[in-house]
Amino acid sequence: MKLDERLSLCASFVREKKMVADIGTDHAYLPVYLVKSGKTDFAVAADVRVGPLENAAGNIAENGLSDRIKTVLSDGLDKISPEEADDIVIAGMGGELIARIIEDAPWLKNSEKHLILQPMTRAEELRSYLSRSGFRIISEKACISCKKCYSVMLCEYDGIIRECSDLYRYIGDLVSDESIEAGRYIYIVTEKLKKKIKGFGRDTSEYESLSSIITQLEQITAERNGNNDISIGNI
Ligand SMILES: C[S@@+](CC[C@H](N)C(=O)[O-])C[C@H]1O[C@@H](n2cnc3c(N)ncnc32)[C@H](O)[C@@H]1O
Asked: Cα dihedral sign for 85, 98, 62, 148?
């Protein structure tokens, strides 16, 4: 079984032989892959909706893994206990929803737990939440899948409240990732902000702050690529 680049990147952050909970599992591709490949012995596949959970159960059964992957109907981690999850994956949802799910599970404030987070939208809200809530981004990487660019963050709780600069909010640790994928991510964020800024009058504070972030991002892109940006073209 082969995962796409996005779920592969999530899987790469999972630690060997740790118990995994996949929150918002839908088809359960990730836990099935992890258990089948031998990286994980036991996993929980959770979803808030019955339909996706039935998809998950079907796929798990087809792969003969019903005794090693438990399906749970759960809003976030509500029905999952700390004993059954070391590495928690929350992928394919908006950044604000991911933040809410983490906030609702105080037991995640434990440095032994790893969070693997892949926001589809509003990644900046998620980075900001993590910084002010004592979660550290250990590593962040970007990938390109089906011509879309995604960021995946590996996080743990260390209790340190961090200041989150505007630049960090938008590109996180990808600033120090020299891959083409990270370059592409930064370029896409810049273009989105350029569109957004058009909605603000030139003399507003929003315009000023967005304009400053855009300048910083453009500078980063120029420096990364020696003004010859290979990440800008079509993928
Ligand atoms: C787009 S799918 C992502 C599937 C998979 N995680 C992936 O990344 O490919 C989002 C899934 O999250 C589920 N979901 C949304 N809100 C949730 C919540 N609060 N708790 C658990 N699952 C949720 C949805 O029902 C849906 O199946």
From this structure: negative
Full pLDDT tens readout for the chain, 235 residues? 789 999 999 999 999 999 999 999 999 999 999 999 999 999 999 999 999 999 999 999 999 999 999 999 999 999 999 999 999 999 999 999 999 999 999 999 999 999 999 999 999 999 999 999 999 999 999 999 999 999 999 999 999 999 999 999 999 999 989 999 999 999 999 999 999 999 988 889 999 999 999 999 999 999 987 755 445 444 4
Give the residue, by CA position, lying nearest to ligand 1 atom 11. Answer: 24
172 lines ligand 1 (CB under 6 A): no
- Residue 76: CB within 6 Å of ligand 1? yes
- The strand pair at 114-119 and 87-93 is best described as parallel
Taking the C-alpha atoms of residue 60 and residue 126, their distance in angstroms, rounded to an integer, is 30
Nearest CA to ligand 1 atom 22: 24
Q: Say if residue 213 is in the same domain as residue 137.
A: no
Q: Based on the structure, what is the number of domains in the chain?
A: 2
What's the CA-to-centroid distance between 94 and ligand 1, angstroms? Answer: 10
- The alpha carbon of 105 and the centre of ligand 1 are apart by a number of angstroms equal to 16
Identify the residue whose C-alpha is closest to ligand 1 atom 3: 92
Domain that holds residue 128: 5-164
Q: Which has the closest alpha carbon to 74: 122, 34, 22? A: 22
- CA 33/CA 42 separation, integer angstroms: 12
Whole-model pTM over 0.85: yes
Residue 127, domain member (yes or no):
yes
CA distance 172 to 212: 16
Looking from the CA of residue 49, the nearest atom of ligand 1 is 25
